[in-house]
Amino acid sequence: MTAPDATSPAGTDAPATSWRDSLAVYLQPRVLIVLFLGFSSGLPLALSGSTLLVWMREAGVDLKTIGLFALVGTPYTLKFLWAPLVDALHVPLFTRAFGRRRGWLLFSQILLIVAILLLAMTDPASSPFYVALGALLVATTSSTQDIVVDAFRVESLPESEQAAGMASYVAAYRIGMLVSTAGALFIVSGFESSGIPRPSAWMWGYVVMAAMVLIGTVTALVATEPEQSVQAEAATHDETAFTRVLHAAIGAFSEFLSRKDALAALAFVVLFKFTDAFSGTMTAPFVIDLGFTRNDYAAIVKGVGLAATLIGGFAGGFVARRYSLATSLWLGGVVQALANLTFSWLAVVGTNQWALALAICAENFTSAVGTVIFVAYLSALCQNPLHTATQYALLTALAAVGRTYLSSGAGFVASATGWPLFFVICVLVAIPSLVLLAWLQKRGHFEALGPVRV
After folding, report:
1. Total-model pTM
2. Distance between CA atoms of 188 and 182, rounded to whole angstroms?
3. Cα separation, 67 vs 236, whole angstroms
């Protein structure tokens, strides 16, 4: 999530530090701010994704339509198009009152709250079009918030706190997703058990989720504007808005595309997490169709699975520090693909909570390993500090192509093949990324990235 650090060669151990120093950095105010912003970024993703899919399945929406709803994640794919606007333009009143980054943070969070409330008012059973529109608004405002948070994190943390900031952000992001999945489902169940009709229970569940965004709003108010942002604002003060946008956009894209094997690297970014995205699109309908209850899904898939995710994150960090970037990507890519076979096994076993817990833990652990290593790779690609925010937005948007477009046909594949074979196919779709990885490694791509610290 930040530029590579030139102090530690790729594939070697970082200088040893004491446990006290290692833990103390997580209590630094700047790192804590990033932690709460990570929660704010993770919260909305499931509200237009897996939680919404559970709502739609319970409302009787067919699998093919549910699969197509992966397309509402389009803003996460295209956010690089307006990332230069976030870098260069001022928000009236907000920028003057709170600063360049904090003004955009508060503005995007207010829009996000409104979007979630609008989605809460829709009915999947009778008006899937308006559900799609509401989900699209949530995804758009959420991805805009992500752009600002990424820039804020990179600019506010000194080099010595970047690694801790990244770890805190990822952990809090996962917790935010847990709240909007398991937490939202438990809240809906609670409303329903108190006598509120199911459609209204879902509406109020989303209203509660909209209120949770205020955690990020309070964090933005408490935070201070990053010094780098202040300096950048001063340096471009005399430029017109159009000139600032032009410099941010052209500089980021031209610098990246001028590198050797740039297109192959971008294709690898798209495909590396595709195996996770393809299976993840259908995980919620799969669990419900297998006969598990909504609370089973909340407690096991998003509850027990969180522990596996956090442990997997630390394991991924260890792998990335211990081995070279290329070797780490091989390990992460292979294990996250093979973990899909546990779902094929679960489809044969049937409704067994222990089997579900084992499958979910295996998938979440390996997915987290792959994610942390992948983030290290994206960070290594963002080598110019002048364009870090826009380049990172481009790369994460491309990574979302697998989740958004390539995964949109998962429902058709699952309907045609059945669940056991579907998850075998999820393993096979990882092959193109591994072929690209081998090709890039042979071409010296990873050596050209230079030193990387995780």
Report:
1. 0.69
2. 10
3. 45
